[in-house]
Every structure is written in structure tokens, then in C-alpha cells.
Amino acid sequence: MSTIRHYPGISHFLGSPTDHVIQMRRGHLSHSGVGQAFWFRRGISALSEVPATDQELPALVHAVTQDQQDMTVQVNVTYRFTDPALAAQRLDFAVWPARGLKDPNGRQQVANLVAQLVQSVVVDATANLTLAQSLATGIEHLRGALEGALLADTRLAATGLAVLGVRVLAVRPEAEVEQALQTPVREQLQAEADRATYERRALAVERERAIAENELANQIELAARREQLVAQEGVNQRREADDAAAVALIASQGEAERQGIAAQAKAAEIDLLGQAEATKESALMAVYASVGQGVLMALALRDAAGALPAIGNLTITPDLVTGLLGQLTGRSA
Questions:
Q1: Is the domain of 9 the same as that of 132?
Q2: pLDDT at residue 180 in the model
């Protein structure tokens, strides 16, 4: 932005590197260029500033297609002032003496001029296209039409303005129509998503089935091995029982043989004792046969006395003494 300082009777202008300043003094060109600095007299000078940089103009155009459908086109136009002096003559870029009284409206005039031209070209170009065609090839078609129209426009050239580029950013129908057009694609995408979900679920089910089959095979294998283990344990138990029975049989046979030997020894001992007892009895009988009846009686009383209970008092009657004496005297006789 340029700067103007006022002093008594004279003023000083300091320009910027982005604006082209033009000084007219009494109708004649005095200064022209970018970044100018000079003194001027207020009563006899007129100053204009034309942008020296590229200008961007966004435009939003509403149009109607051949099938009577509303459509919005977003366009961006890049332009530059190639002849600032011509532009200052045709448009209002005055900064003095207009500064302080009103803002220069040269930029707005250029914006209105370019926007009207863009709108005219877009309306004419979309009038021969249906909505489907506009959505399919509208961006390329409109860009070509805009470039051709803007570059060939004589009014822009007469204003000292050159279009550098045109970009069609978007071609969109009304919200309801756009939503309706998006519905089949959304449905197709949803169907694809559902198909992917179903395939993923089917794959998950298949994997779960494979896992279940694997687990079942493992269980069958474990059951078969458990059966083999049980059968082997039965064989081992039977073998252990057979071995235990064989050991018990051997032990019982040994015990029986031991008891038989002990019985034979006992029987032999009893036989020997019987024979000795019989020999003893035979000897006693022979001795008893050689003694008298009184001796036998005395021996019998002696043997009986060992088995009788204790006798505290013994009463001897005359009859007992007489009988004993008689037996004694008779034996002695």
C-alpha cells in the first residue's frame, strides 16, 4: 500500500512494490512505474494505482441444464493488468484526489466484469448439456469454454487486462438431486461392504469349523490314546495279578511244604513219644504186676492226693483203722 504525506504546499508519494502508480500533471504523464517515490503538488496532480500482481477472482455461478436441473459451478479466474495506463484510463484506480473522499472501485469493476463474463459463458455452455452430461464432462467442457471466451474477449483486452488461467473447481447439482444421485453409488458401496462383511463372516465360520474339526480330531486322537492307555493298564494289571498269584502260589506251596515237613516232624515226634510212653507204660505194668495190692493202693492214693483239694482236718475212725490194719496184717501174712 502506498503512502502519501502532506506538507505545506506540497505532498510526497511513496509507492509499494506491488502497485503500478501513474501520475498525471495538468493532463500529461509525469511518473509511471512500480515502487515510485516523488513530490507532487496537490492542485495540479492526479494519482492512480493499478495492481501489478496476479489477481485471483473466485466465482460461484448458478445455471440450468437442458433437462431443467439447477446446477452450481465454482470457478476461479487468475488475471493480470498488462497495460496499467490503459486500465487506469478505463477503470477507477484513483488514489488522489479521490483518496479520503471515496475508495477506488477499479478492483470491484474488474471483478464484476470478469464475473459477468464467466456467468454468461457458464450459462450458455450448460444450456446444451443435460445434468448427467454436466456431471460427467462438465468440468472439462466448461474450462475449455471459459478459456476460449475470456482469452478472446475484446473488452478485457481493451481494459488492459489479460486472463492467465481458468480453473473449474466443482460442478454440483442441488442437494436433493445430489443425494439422489449418490444413493445408487452408496447402495453399491454398501452392498460391497455387506459382501465383504459376509465373506469375512464366512471365512471366520470356515476357520471356526476348521478349528472345531481340528479340536474334534485331537479329542478323537486323545480318546484313542486313552483307550490304548486303559488297555495297556488292564494288561499291566492282569500281568501284575498273574505275577502276584504266581508269587502267592509259590508262597502257599512253600508254606504247605513247610507245614507238611513240620507235620511229619511232629508226627515222628509224637510217634517217638508214644513209643516211649508205651514202653514206659509197659515197664510200669510189668512192675505193677510184680507188686502186691497194697502197694498199688498206696500208689493210687499218692497219685490221687496230688489232685485232691487241701484237707484241713482228717478224722480217722476205728473202722478205717481196723480195715487198714486188717489189710496190712493180711498182706503181711
A1: yes
A2: 79
